[in-house]
């Protein structure tokens, strides 16, 4: 009965408009509440998060001065890399900046990426996400009031004897007009926040004695992409200012800075070039790698990209030779040692991977990601003499980076070889929880809990896992 009633109501033109507008409000709330500046990725598979010690350290070096002058140095703001080829960045909350691998690959200078990070820092420091949620909440209230008023108007028309077709037309106009005003108001507010973040970015760059020229260069890229659309876009229906408007607004501020013509330090540019080459090697197919870095290019970044591509697509012997040439060119570069270890590990030569990974760990002062990889190599080598070292490395890594299922699985294997079944089950459970397999993870936690003495540290950790309430499949999943 209820279902039939809904169908009959939806058949009325006014009711259809009401349902359509209500769906628009729900969609608007969903889109604007997302921690992204645009919804271009909707309908596409969710890209993976990229974890890499070299790139993460470089981005921390880029962001650290900006976060300091923005007053965010103590908030532990992290920069997370997304494996997406498009040029984009966004903030998710008060402690995370997400940036696409495509932005890092396409940005020719450190300054261009630093400008992007400064802009996103402006959003965090300005509290823009919290204020946007307030705006959306206000929009919901306005939408409900508009719908009620429109409904009252339809009822009055019906009472006055208006025809059904006239009622439908009047209802559609009464409902859609205020909703369009609400939508444009929200988009206007968001454009204002974008402009405010631009101004904050220039301020941060000036205070850190860096140029804002990279921001302008980035917006010029967007302007070129928008040229063929500019005659067909209504600027009032965008959530960002048009690129040409942003350039005009920024140029005066940027050129007023005494640091406008400041160049990136050569050493920083060299690290940036290696980062871009690394991403190309990992994210592109061999033909694209060789178009970007042909054999005629003898530079270190070109050699880096080609070495990565060689190991990714099966030619490990050639890859190791290429990596050894990189190590000979820069013996103090820990990430060349890491790459050699990774190539050997993924080729099933874990025993040979141990030594270069040990060197990389020592040279980086114990980077967590590299220590986790070393622990995996020690386990996969099958050498019983490495078991205690593997446990030590993997315990360190999982305590500081608990979201790596691979590290947890390797730790479980290491504990299993020691005959420590309680900790093996607990590590397996934590790895399963990290990858979202909550039911199986809790089953293993229950078994681990039975193996530990009551109220021991392991028993309490297993109990915490059992007490965890997984999100419902049709509910909010979090983690965005």
Would you give an account of this structure?
There is one protein chain. The chain has 480 residues and is mostly helical. Among the domains are: 49-255, Zincin-like; 284-331, no CATH class. 69% of the residues lie in helices and 3% in strands. The chain contains 21 helices and four strands. A four-stranded mixed beta sheet has the order 1-2-4-3. A hairpin with a 4-residue loop joins β3 (89-91) and β4. α5 (110-125) packs across α8 and α14 packs antiparallel against α15. It is globular and about 70 Å long. Residues 1-43, 130-159, 167-190, 226-241 and 474-480 have low confidence and may be disordered.
Task: Please outline the major beta sheet.
Answer: 4 strands, mixed
**Spans where pLDDT lies below 50 across 5 or more residues:** 1-43, 130-159, 167-190, 226-241, 474-480
Q: Provide the gyration radius in Å.
A: 28 Å
Estimated structural class: mainly alpha
Number of strands: 4
Mass-distribution shape: globular
CATH architecture of the domain at 49-255: 2-Layer Sandwich
Ends apart, CA distance between termini: 39 Å
What's the mean pLDDT score?
A: 78
Provide the helix percentage: 55-70%
- With strands numbered from the N-terminus, the spatial order across the biggest sheet is 1-2-4-3
What is the beta-strand fraction?
A: under 5%
CATH topology type of the domain at 49-255: Zincin-like
Number of continuous helical runs: 21
State the name of the first-level CATH class of the domain at 49-255.
Answer: Alpha Beta
The CATH fourth-level homologous superfamily of the domain at 49-255: Metalloproteases ("zincins"), catalytic domain
**H and E string:** HHEHEEEHHHHHHHHHHHHHHHHHH
